[in-house]
Specification:
homodimer; 2 domains
Chain lengths: 344, 344
Amino acid sequence: MAGCNIAVIGATGAVGTVFLNILEDRAFPTGDIRLCASERSWGKKLIAMGKELSVEEATPMLLSEVDLVFVCAGSDISLEIGPLAVEQGATVVDKSSAFRMDPNVPLVVPEVNGDDLEQHNGIVSVPNCSTAPLVMVLKPLNAVNPVERVIVDTYQSVSGTGAAAMDELRVQSGQVLESSRITPKEYPHQIAFNVLPHIESFHDNGYTNEEMKMVWETRKILHEPNLQISATCVRVPVMVGHSEAVHIDFEESISPGEVRQILSDTPGVTVVDDPATNKYPMPIDAEGQDDVFVGRIRQDVSNPKGIAMWLATDNLRKGAALNGIQIAEELLRRELLLRTARRN
Amino acid sequence: MAGCNIAVIGATGAVGTVFLNILEDRAFPTGDIRLCASERSWGKKLIAMGKELSVEEATPMLLSEVDLVFVCAGSDISLEIGPLAVEQGATVVDKSSAFRMDPNVPLVVPEVNGDDLEQHNGIVSVPNCSTAPLVMVLKPLNAVNPVERVIVDTYQSVSGTGAAAMDELRVQSGQVLESSRITPKEYPHQIAFNVLPHIESFHDNGYTNEEMKMVWETRKILHEPNLQISATCVRVPVMVGHSEAVHIDFEESISPGEVRQILSDTPGVTVVDDPATNKYPMPIDAEGQDDVFVGRIRQDVSNPKGIAMWLATDNLRKGAALNGIQIAEELLRRELLLRTARRN
């Protein structure tokens, strides 16, 4: 098979950088790679797949020369580039929330609902970085014992906001340690040595958009439109790695041992659950790893049919770039790329 | 009324220091103040109520000369000093978990169950720093609409561990910023730029002792032995201030507006809930304040009879020292000090 020509929109950002690293790690069958970003980065040199490449403008011409476009640059860019790329015959894997709830756009975690790719119309969405690890855990459990309700509270790292937020946490932490004056920019309040119960804008129902994404996206990915789920999403002063405290009520009782066994048998999930030796998932251990790490699995003391657990995952990888590449791999395997289809 | 002679055991620690500050702020009617700590601090000078005092050994003689003993130095010290102080005729307010679940020891948040002080036998326990703010919120709501189930996930600051842990977070944060090697001492893993789903030891049921304290203590304080409650307790890299994501299922439906009204009318609780202007409780704002701050109050989207909310409180104050002083004030007001009783 000839390599797949790829354009990365947002190549200089936190997710774009990780995307290029993972492409190389997984030996993704790439042909040409084109790197795009906003005007201030045009001409900047980046290394991708061992080659030095210049950052370019995402022109219709460029989009017509690639098979796959990975967009990781915010919803506004996706809304502009997505349809344009499809028009030029490329297939789009979009990290943003722009198309996720569009009924014509599959929202995919390949291990969970890879079959949904068959219905794509040129654009495939990557779920939110907090939703992806959650559905990785819910899917295999729901298959065995229907999930009735999920309550999840998150501990999300600043890399979910982007590279500038990582800089802000770094600089602000130093300033707080030196008792210097700080000026929040990326967040409405100080993030160093603080936690913010606020990720994205607020809806009229009092939930944030991030929290409602977890509700809507989980239902769509699991094909469970009536799943009862509530979330509180919280930003914590961690660089990379999102964690979640998850409380699941099942239709029937299930033991922690059964849950541990099911999750141990699930590709992409690693159980790290040995409290006696202080082993449980943590963001610093998840960073740079592909799997969703799950531990603290226990019978919920407030519900005999409930299980409480804790998970951590690299939000830039399974929560974004890795999942995007896995979608691309699955599109290739299933021969679902628009341009390849046309060549046939 | 003559001043009350007080001994503070653990006067050099994080809670002890705050205790002395609050005594002064609240103009607590003190007579002599005696400061005690471990041997390495004997002779050390501290300022308390504007006077320079030497740290002493907590001898039976010293305990016989005070009316009230505030113990904030770990369970082992409480088990030793508590009964000894009572034997010497002093009344003990104990911050540790040593006696909390003892049926002969009241576990008190004065605004919630001050009447339980009437049954004390010399020792009164201060609840865990995560439990105190939670019961402050649950009590007034439960009085109006019975609480059926609570799920709470915490975001606890390192000051809950003590002064050494605060130093560790400070030093470790600097080391991580400089990419220096770090060596965890107070925690089993790095705490800077990380979160640990692990506070205190693990029980056989997979919950930590901190999590089970929240279950047991909440039931005892609310006099609701069958309350269904589950917690995941997590240490976050914050200096002072514990936060909690709380999900409450009620017997009957209740609106966020009603909840906001009830909590606004509750002494010791301040509602900070205006998402439109980015106003919600945060640990950096709770630090140094007496109240429990509650916000993000919303109808739970997973349960029409549920309410989700978020709270933050100064764990050294309402979670420990302040609550201890409020207990002492209440003991004085109700004339329940052992030695005062004898004098009568």
